[in-house]
Amino acid sequence: MLYPQRLSQFTREHADTVAALLCGFLLFLGWFALHLGALGLAFLLLPAAYIIGGYESAREGLTTLFKEKELDVDLLMIVAAIGAASLGLWRREYHLIIDGAILILIFAISGALEGYAMQQTERSIRSLMSLTPDTARILLQGREEEIPISQLKVGDEIVVKPGELIPTDGIILSGYSTLNQAAITGESLPVEKTVGEEVFAGTLNGYGALQIKVHKPAQSSLIQRVIRLVEQAQTEAPPSQEFIDRFEKRYAKVIVVAGILLATLPPFLWGWDWETTIYRTLTFLVVASPCALMAAIMPTLLSGIANGARQGILFKNGAQLEKIGKVRAIAFDKTGTLTTGQVQVFQVVSVSEYTNNDVLKAAASVESSSEHPIGKAIVQAAGDLDWVAAIQVQAIPGQGIVGIAQEKQVIVGNAIFLQQYVTNLPEQLQEIVKSWEQEGKTVVWVAQEGREAGEQGSRGAEVMGVIAIADEVRVEAAATISRLKKLGVEQIVMLTGDNQETAHSVAKAVGIDQVYAQLLPEDKLDVIRGLQQQYQTVAMVGDGINDAPALAQASVGIAMGVSGSDVALETADIVLMADRLEKIAVAMDLGRRSQAIVKQNIVVALGFIMLLLVGNFLGNINLPIGVIGHEGSTVLVTLSGLRLLK
User: Fold this and answer.
1) CA 329 to CA 306: how far, in whole Å?
2) Short-list 532, 537, 570, CA closest to 316
3) How many other C-beta atoms are found inside a 10 Å radius of the C-beta of residue 314?
4) Quick one: pLDDT at residue 437?
5) Which of the two residues, 609 and 579, has the higher pLDDT score?
6) Which one, of 206, 184, 28, lies nearest residue 193 by Cα?
7) Which of 387, 432, 507, 576 is deepest in the core (most CB within 10 A)?
8) What phi and psi, each to the nearest 5 degrees, are found at residue 541?
9) Quick one: which H or E segment has residue 229?
10) How far apart are CA 603 and CA 293, in angstroms?
11) Exposure string over 263-273, b if 16+ CB within 10 A, otherwise e
12) What average pLDDT score do residues 64-75 get?
């Protein structure tokens, strides 16, 4: 029973190929029958070849004609084939029936080859669909139970064992492992993950068992958003393809009118006989059809989209792949885009009586009770040191925090806050702090009560040192800016709501000359509009909700996929799945290569059409040669578009 099932499945999956093979087999038998003089058998076999090989084209052509009231290439091919057969019967030159069958056979073979070529692109894209398992192992009252992913709820705890795929996005509750995120983010090396860090559906767990808490619905996971956007990209035609589609409809009408004129005027103008006139008319219908032109764009763009997806670059549609190659100016958001968006301890300076570690330990003891990002950065920096959490901790928003550690009061905060507890601030530290602030860094002062904690508030504390906090610039940012300049981007600017000092410090570090600071979301929008007036095609790179208006206004909006907000991801046209800025240059190169290949394909397609038309008019080609030239150019253009897969 398995063999018939497999045969049926093969036939369904390769229907075009099976039809072409049967058509070719029947054509050969029909030709052989004609050669032996068995006309009756030939007239049974050849119509069967016509029907099997041309059924799909005839169905599509007639559907387009009756439903959309438009002529298309498929119908023209069938008309040409039937015309050749009719002419052969009329003149009793039965080789013309063979010519018509060869036309249908080559058209069927071409369709099968184009189908396989496009499946190559489809396979590259749709491989995303198989990245997540169907079930998840959930913990219920201490027991493990497998349930469909669709039944997962926010708050559920799931277990992922070594070597398994992560079923949905979540936060690690316990365990440590390395995850292969290449399929989602394009990162080539496994990434270490531990408690508190986010993991993504579709990534492959390494050697450690993980317990993960679901923190968002399964349908909102990163991979599901990618799949939805990829499906959308496949169904939306870019402007260039829409133009070609409109052109094809008008062009088909022109072919029909020209065919009618060619079928009627030559006998009167040039003295052609009617048989020659009709034959050349049929050949004209074949060689003038714009099949290659129709295949010049979408295979190329879909290949580019598939290539980008493999490298962690998600194009929402082909139009954005076209546009990114034309970008002349790029605007970058600062926080979370050029920087990591996560503040870190940049430097620690202590007074002579203390060490840098003393300063960090004292600060961490009180900041361990704080939820502020600066406090978390200090605690993280002091992670390997031996410190004890303070008691009686009190935070004063916008100023600082105080607490008691090892029976001494510890004060952490800005200079004004510290001056409530200390007599004076060391001058050498003030000079250092001044230079840090000019570089845009946030400064935290640390002091410790010199006497017993019971005497706190008596301005008897002494300064231990200062800590510089900074939002870390992405390591690849400077190289990315340099690469974009080499690619010919005329203007690169930075947009931020931060102060001038911080903005200029980051801009200098990454190599950006033009800075717009202290901007509201609507101000960013105005800057993008101004750039568009000057440079036309402008890209905006951002990650936050406040970037969404500018991302929407830009010709190409580029969002950071990991750190980006949902609003930014939905608004943007391109998503960098791994937050890797260097992928912007890769995307731009893909866009430019796609434009070049599309132009090459259009030139090849039009060149073949013109060459075949001239050859037909001069009488130097017959119908099968015209078909081979026409279909050969179509396959050539399709395969050319698939170059972007590599």
Assistant:
1) 25
2) 570
3) 26
4) 79
5) 609
6) 206
7) 576
8) -115, 120
9) helix 222-235
10) 9
11) beebeeeeebe
12) 70
Q: Which residues contact 190 (CB under 8 A, 6 or more apart)?
A: 178, 179, 180, 181, 206
Higher pLDDT, 175 or 15: 175
Query: By C-alpha distance, which of 556, 498, 496 is closest to 531?
Result: 556
Instruction: List, for residues 377-415, the tens digit of each pLDDT value.
Output: 899 889 888 888 989 888 887 678 999 998 889 999 888
Q: Which residue has the tokens 């749709």?
A: 126
Rounded to the nearest 10 degrees, the angle between the axes of helix 477-486 and helix 582-617 is 30
State how far the alpha carbon of 588 is from the alpha carbons of 329, 513, 539, in Å: 12, 21, 10
Using 50, 70 and 90 to split pLDDT, how confident is the model at 633?
A: confident
Amino acid of residue 11:
T
Q: In DSSP terms, which residues pair with 491 in a beta bridge?
A: 329
CA–CA dist 315, 54 (Å, integer) = 36
pLDDT in tens, 565-594: 565 566 778 888 777 889 999 999 999 998
Q: Would you state the structure tokens that stand for residue 48, as one six-digit string?
A: 């069967």
Burial 444-459 (b: 16+ CB within 10 A, else e): bbbbbbeeebeebeee
Share the mean pLDDT of the chain.
Answer: 80
Q: How are the residues of the chain apportioned to helix, strand and coil, as percentages rounded to the nearest 5?
A: 55, 20, 25
Q: At 539, is the secondary structure helix, strand, or coil?
A: strand
Q: Which residues contact 137 (CB under 8 A, 6 or more apart)?
A: 144, 145, 146, 158, 159, 160, 161
The maximal CA–CA distance of the chain, rounded, in angstroms, is: 121
The length of the chain is 646
Contact status, residue 363 vs residue 526, Cβ threshold 8 Å:
no
Q: CA Rg, the chain, in Å? A: 35
Q: Which helix (H) or strand (E) element contains residue 540?
A: strand 538-542
Task: Quick: pLDDT tens for 511-538.
Answer: 998 999 877 777 888 899 899 999 999 9
Q: Is the pTM of this model over 0.70?
A: no
DSSP SS3 for 394: strand
Question: What residue type is 242 in one-letter code?
Answer: E
State how far the Cα of 84 lies from the Cα of 281, in Å rounded to an integer. 10
Give the pLDDT score at 465: 93
Q: How far apart (Å, rounded) are the C-alpha atoms in residues 389 and 393?
A: 9
CA distance 329 to 484: 10
In angstroms, the Cα distances linking 140 to 154, 166, 193, 195, 608 are 14, 18, 24, 20, 67
- Compute φ and ψ for 5, nearest 5 degrees: -65, -45
6 burial via Cβ count (<10 Å: 0-12, 13-18, 19+): exposed
Give the whole-angstrom CA distance, residue 265 versus residue 27: 34
Single out the residue of 189, 226, 187 nearest to residue 206, CA to CA: 189
Spatial contact of 310 and 586, defined as CB atoms under 8 Å apart:
no
The Cα 547–Cα 550 span in angstroms is: 5
Of 374, 372, 371, 393, the residue nearest 382 (C-alpha)? 374
Active site residues per annotation: 333
